[in-house]
Structure formats: C-alpha cells, structure tokens
Amino acid sequence: MVLGKTGYLQGLHTRQLLAHLVGLRRLESKWGRYYQLASTFKNLREEIELTKSILATREHIPNKQEARKIRQEKARSK
User: Fold this and answer.
1) Cα Rg for the chain, rounded, in angstroms?
2) pLDDT band for position 1 (cuts 50, 70, 90)
3) Residues in Cβ contact with 44 at an 8 Å cutoff, skipping those fewer than 6 apart
C-alpha cells in the first residue's frame, strides 16, 4: 500500500505534504490505541515515515515567526 503512494506523495507540493503529515499524526493520536487490526496501525506508521523522509529532501518553509523576521530584514535592507 505505501509503495504505491510514493509517486503520489512525491508529486505533492511541500505545504501539501506538511498538511498530509499533520493529518496522519492527528489520525494516529486519535485512533492509535483503538485500531482493530495491527496491520492498519503499522501501515499508518509506515506512511508517516515515508512522508517524513520525502519532506527531509525538500526545502525549508519558514513558519509564521520566521517569515515575519525575513520580511522585516528585507524591508530594512531596502
């Protein structure tokens, strides 16, 4: 299941991947203990790890505070 998603996840933009990872983590925290099948939880963990490994190869996207600092420094230099 996870191997088929590699191409799909590679095609997503970085922000989309981050949103996907947030959703996976939310799902894991919400349903982590209540999975009926152990394989489902294992697949979820594998997809989280796959998403994280793809994100590790991408450029850094600044968070709100970092973006503000970058904008302020850019304005000062003008």
Assistant:
1) 17
2) very low
3) 24, 27, 28, 35
